[in-house]
Amino acid sequence: MLDSLVQLVGAGHVTDDPEVLVTRSVDYTGRYRGRAGALVRPGSPEEIAAVLRICRDAGAHVTVQGGRTSLVAGTVPEHDDVLLSTERLNTVGPVDTIERRVSVGSGATLAAVQQAAAAAGLVFGVDLTARDTATVGGMASTNAGGLHTVHYGNMAEQVLGLQVALPDGALLRRHSLVRADNTGYNLPSLFVGAEGTLGVITGLDLRLHPAPAHRATAVCGFAGLDALVDAARIFRDLDGIAALELLDARLAALTGDRLGVAAPVAGNWLLLVELAGDTDQTYRLADLLQHVSLGEEPAVGVDTATRQRLWRLREAVADVLGAFGPPLKFDVALPLAAVARFADAAGTLVRRHAPGALPVLFGHIGEGNLHCNVLRCPAEAEPGLYAAMMDLIGECGGNVSSEHGVGSRKRAYLSMSREPGDVAAMRTLKAAFDPTGYLNAAVLFDTP
Known about the structure:
With 448 residues, this protein is of the alpha+beta class. It has helices at residues 2-9, 18-24, 45-58, 110-119, 136-141, 149-152, 188-191, 225-236, 249-259, 282-289, 304-315, 317-320, 339-353, 382-395, 420-433; strands at 14-15, 36-40, 62-65, 81-85, 101-105, 122-124, 159-165, 171-174, 200-210, 214-222, 241-248, 269-277, 299-301, 328-333, 358-364, 369-375. The protein folds into four domains: 2-85, Uridine Diphospho-n-acetylenolpyruvylglucosamine Reductase, domain 2; 101-210, 2-Layer Sandwich (Uridine Diphospho-n-acetylenolpyruvylglucosamine Reductase, domain 3); 214-319, Alpha-Beta Plaits (2-Layer Sandwich); 322-403, Alpha-Beta Plaits (2-Layer Sandwich). The protein has a seven-stranded antiparallel β-sheet, sandwiched between helices. Strands 5, 6, 7, 8 and 9 form a five-stranded antiparallel β-sheet that branches. It has a four-stranded mixed β-sheet with strand order 1-2-4-3, sandwiched between helices. The chain is globular, with a radius of gyration of 22 Å.
């Protein structure tokens, strides 16, 4: 099989070097590790399709990797897999400013797409702090959301067309020059969010948006989480809401101590809110803040430099989370009414199962999408804490995953969010596309 792969993509793009494979078999957090037999880096959609045929015929499992920023061990191999990297499919085509779209390879980074859009006076709707490494193919595979989901939606809303290499080695391309195309099955929707279990996304047609002429940003401090949630209810459905981010003051203290990025206002809970539009948003934001129960005057930024300083607080979170070793991560969406209860109960669970650990909370409060990270959590405490936390999420009416996907870490909890008939239908689709189950076998589904 390795000889066939070398013949196909070239010796420089295939390796079974154990030292290389070890670095490629660990997840983004460094908490979970697997094992792989080879790494192959195809250079075109046709080569990816051919690699899939070779691996299927050889009976080898394949794990697809893009930027390897999965937070649920979605790119960690479990079956001595062939690692199929899309990193060489990194082209970004010319931006169509009339139709506001761009065609890109699945291995293009989010930052590259954002830069191309900005050069054309447009914006791409999804933004993540891992923008320099996250690839748009992986983001589509997990239906990623991010910092501006409250305004633009998840990746599903940005995808106008796809090219996919199917498990049988065929290439499927859904490309249309018009946006209103209701011809037959909506096949792209099958692959967005499928986490690579039905095929390998090789290219995407992405929607771009007009760049707002004006933005106004504020960071507000709250004594209690209930008051912040009430404010989030006011802001989340407004026209022009561009961002609505929750930040635990414990995290802000860490960014201040370790990175020199201190919170601009006091409060146990912080809310970053941004409005965007074609007209000046300053007075509108000020008027809205008058209706919110704040602990003190908010910090407001209208000019670019001030807004960037406020955003730095939120951006710094990613830089500080790993300072205490690999964090234990929970990605969940909750009804807003349950957010405060969850925060209190999650703290109690951490104290019970891992007394020396530190739980911190942040996320996209407009969708109730929270990221609960447990810092300094010892490995021996993880099984009990993980199970208890997932039970709590279910009791609060939450789901198993909001934007990170299920991956391999959460596959045992799929039934939390999907009824048996739903899971059975998904398994039927998986079997139809991938009868032998060799593609991303560790992801999404637990053993029947």
